[in-house]
Design a protein that fits this description.
Strand content: 5-15%
CATH class of the largest domain: Alpha Beta
Order of helices and strands: HHHEHEHEHEHEE
Structural class: alpha/beta
Distance between the termini: 94 Å
């Protein structure tokens, strides 16, 4: 009996040592999440948790010592800066408009563009969202689109905010380059403004926000595509690789942790096929 007990103990110890050594082997390590991999992660794929400069750890004075009172102070300060709820940002591209004249004042929605906006408003109403904020670019086509949408959803028009930062523009030189389109001056003029708009509207919730919030932004194709790349931490130069239709819905969610996910990207599945457009007509003869 003693020999059997000794054998069992020895065998158990040996197996434990064997598996412990295997677990220490980085090639065989058991990860605590299926999202982990043993393959090296590309540097551009790493997530910056402080992308909005609101990670609580970056807002609190670091601990000066390991004393209990200092730890309590640090933990208390940290808790005050932790977001509790998610922010949902729904981006709408304006409807189709006619690009005639040299000024924005002449860039009005086409009949088809107005119908697109109406369908989008109906879709937003069907989603049953209670809006906390509605913001629109101050360009004519965005203003007209927002006005039509507001006729379909439950929101006080008097509370709508108009923002010049959201105006259409060329955010950053795209990759791959587009040979026939080289608005170098526009990149310098518009890039900083569009980036400022991103900083203004994309961030995790304030600590005092107790429930999920919904912000509706009516803007422009280039700006929306740039926002998507920046929010998901894709290379910003990739913005021109994305195509979104007129009056489409793009939905991004910022979690309390600062993680960002996309629910819709340029969704127009609610539009009749004959109203699907993404290019700008420059001749009234080509407008349906």
């Amino acid at each position: 009996m003693r020999k059997f007990t000794a054998f069992a103990c020895g065998t158990g110890a040996g197996l434990a040592a064997y598996y412990f050594q295997k677990l220490r082997d980085p090639q065989l390590a058991v990860h605590n999440s299926w999202t982990h991999s043993d393959r090296p992660v590309s540097e551009c794929a790493l997530w910056d948790s402080n992308w909005d400069f609101r990670d609580p750890k970056s807002l609190v004075r670091p601990q000066k010592s390991d004393l209990p009172q200092e730890q309590n102070r640090y933990n208390s300060d940290l808790e005050k800066h932790v977001a509790k709820s998610a922010r949902h940002i729904i981006l709408i591209r304006h409807g189709e408009y006619l690009d005639v004249g040299e000024s924005d004042d002449t860039h009005h929605l086409t009949d088809r563009g107005r119908l697109q906006a109406k369908y989008t408003g109906q879709r937003l109403r069907e989603l049953g969202i209670k809006w906390d904020k509605v913001i629109a670019s101050n360009m004519v086509r965005a203003q007209e689109t927002a006005d039509i949408i507001l006729g379909q959803i439950d929101y006080d028009k008097a509370k709508v905010k108009n923002c010049s930062y959201l105006r259409e523009g060329a955010p950053i030189p795209p990759q791959p380059p587009v040979g026939h389109w080289k608005p170098e001056a526009s990149f310098f003029r518009d890039g900083a403004r569009i980036e400022a708009a991103f900083r203004r509207y994309f961030h995790r919730a304030l600590p005092e926000q107790e429930k999920e919030s919904y912000t509706l932004i009516v803007g422009h194709g280039n700006v929306i595509r740039y926002f998507v790349c920046r929010a998901l931490q894709f290379p910003a130069e990739a913005w021109l690789r994305i195509s979104i239709n007129h009056a489409s819905i793009t939905w991004l969610t910022i979690s309390p942790s600062g993680n960002v996910s996309i629910k819709y990207l340029g969704d127009t599945g609610f539009l009749p096929a004959k109203y699907l457009t993404n290019r700008i007509p420059r001749d009234a003869k080509n407008v349906v």
